[in-house]
Write a structure and sequence with these properties.
- The protein has 150 residues and is an all-alpha fold.
- It has one domain.
- The chain has 6 helices and no strands.
- It has helices at residues 2-26, 33-63, 68-71, 75-99, 102-106, 115-143.
- The longest helix is centred in the first third of the chain and has 31 residues, at 33-63.
- It is elongated, with a radius of gyration of 18 Å.
Length: 150
C-alpha cells in the first residue's frame, strides 16, 4: 500500500507541474476561445492534482511511511507544508481570473486580458513554479533526514 500511495503522490505532483507549465506557456500569447479553454483545462488539472498531492501526502504522513511523529519533527517537512499552503494561496489569483472567463467563453467570445493582467498572471505562475522547486528541495532534504528536530 505504501508503494501505491507513493506512486499516486508522485504522479499527481508531475501532473501539477505539467499543468502549471502549460498555463505559463498558454497565457503568453493572444487569447482566443480555444486557448482560453485550454488555460481553464490546465488550471482544472492543476487544482485536481494539487488536491490529490495534499490528500495523498497527508495520508502518507499519518497512516503510511514513518508516521506523523517523524514528519512533524522535520524542519524540511514543515517548510514544505508551509510552501504548499503559500502556493495554494497564490494559485487563487489566476484561478479567479480564469473563472471570470466562463461567461464570454459560453458566448463564443475570447476573454479580454490586458497586458497588465497578463503580466500579473505570469508573475504569479512563475512564483508558483519557483515554490515547486523549493518544495522539491525540501522533499529531498526530508527524505535524507536533514533538519530533524530530535
Amino acid at each position: 500500500m505504501q508503494s501505491l500511495f507513493a506512486f499516486l503522490h508522485h504522479v499527481a505532483a508531475f501532473a501539477l507541474v505539467g499543468a502549471l507549465a502549460a498555463e505559463f506557456v498558454l497565457i503568453r500569447g493572444e487569447l482566443d476561445v480555444k486557448t482560453a479553454a485550454r488555460v481553464l483545462a490546465a488550471d482544472a488539472v492543476y487544482g485536481a492534482s494539487a488536491g490529490i498531492v495534499v490528500v495523498v501526502g497527508l495520508l502518507r504522513v499519518f497512516y503510511f511511511e514513518k508516521g506523523a511523529a517523524y514528519y512533524l519533527h522535520s524542519v524540511p517537512f514543515l517548510l514544505k507544508f508551509a510552501l504548499v499552503v503559500v502556493a495554494g494561496g497564490l494559485s487563487m489569483v489566476p484561478t479567479r481570473e480564469y473563472l471570470s472567463w466562463y461567461k464570454s467563453l459560453k458566448q463564443g467570445r475570447a476573454p479580454v486580458l490586458d497586458e497588465r493582467k497578463r503580466a500579473t498572471l505570469r508573475k504569479v505562475i512563475h512564483a508558483e513554479l519557483a515554490l515547486v522547486v523549493l518544495i522539491l528541495l525540501c522533499a529531498a532534504l526530508m527524505a535524507r533526514g536533514v533538519g530533524f528536530l530530535g
